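Run log, item B.
One chain of 485 residues. Sequence copied directly from the ordering sheet:
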Amino acid sequence: MSSRKPSGPAAKTPAIKGNRLIAAQEATLLRGRQDATREYAVLVAVEFTGERRRLTAVALQARASAAVLRIDDDTTAAPASTHAEDFDATLAEFQELARSAGATVAAVLIQRRARPDPATLVGQGKLEEIKATVASTGASLVLFNHDLTPSQARNIEAGLPCTVIDRTQLILDIFARHARTREGQLQVELAQLEYQLPRLAGRGKAMSQLGGGIGTRGPGETQLETDRRKINLRLDHIKGQIESIRRIRRQQRQRREAVPVPTVALVGYTNAGKSTLFNALTGAAVLASARMFATLDPKLRQLHLPSRRQILLSDTVGFIRNLPHALITSFRATLEEVERAELLLHVRDASSPAFEEQKQQVERVLGELDVAGKPVLQVLNKIDLLAAHTLAALPRQAVPVSGLTGQGIDALLAAIDDALVADPLIDASFRIPQADGAVLAALESGAIVSNQSFEGNLVYLEARGPASLLNRYRRFRRRGGPDAS
């Protein structure tokens, strides 16, 4: 009896089923690999209530809402102050920082205590809870919303089976992700090394072993001392490279300043919509992202104002509450455009619940940069997210705009024009020979020309424009004109 292989659709069924099984297995493996590469994090937020207790009852009443808040184990209820709101905003911001760094939040643990534990910040009981949470969620990271001292970091890591990262390290990681230019990468590395240097002790057994290598280690020098020496050498090298970049930037700035073009810098809290507004004003296509610190490297674009004068608009890194001082120091080269700017546009997220607090945090950083005395134009962004009654209640001295929809952009350009007091707009009347075509072209391109008439070989006109331009052609001014003296 001869055996025949089945033919037709029935013959294909096992193969199809096998292919589907293989595809399903591959999909399962792919999901497994994606889960393996995804970093799950346990967030630990600590609120020190001792700071709240130092507030007077009058201050609490002044900042209270109708709700009441129980503070730790106290039996007395105090009016809920904006401290609770501040903590909630800080916690939400910390979660967004974690997501911006690429972490998936597996759990959030909150502890309220009067003062920090000098050994572990949170205390031994909370540390055991963190350890249990890490075990149950399979997290590979524990993120603290406070900075840890070197000893606290070592003690916590000794009790946990995963990596421990504090707030400054988290921000540095986000900066490292977003640095694109060589300057930005150097500044991030500088900040990282300066942060790591005092935290080398206790990082593994190799750090305390003696060695007597030739060329790399001196006789009897510990591994810790070797690492410190290498980091210090690298720090000196990076600082030299950054200084070279600053020297080139100064030369470029000197060439720009040879032609008086004022610089206007966008400043503001991170994720306030500065890059979106920058694109709306200049027509550029810089990265605009909802992630925090999406803009790290400064951007400069030319912009024409309604008066036809030109300015340079600078987009800068966003600020954040309790911005580490090391970052301000390391990124001072990047923030030089802010220091040199004639006008600062403080871009604020009008839809943020922490609207006023973010303003104070930005002003604090501007004070550290010694630019608090510069002229500032308040710009309320994201008004497309506001209800009509909220929009009507916005401060009148600020300019409401939407970088996303373009609403209010014309009013903002006019406000920038009026705010540039170092090179104010003036009116002047001119009588210019037609043979001086270059003068006529310069006035028409850089000022608003009106009432133009011709008489023989002379051109009579009135112009409104920046004083630096109109005063350049003072010899052609008419006597008895609007600016005659």
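Observations after the first pass:
- The longest strand covers residues 103-113.
- The longest helix spans residues 223-258.
Flagged for discussion on Thursday.
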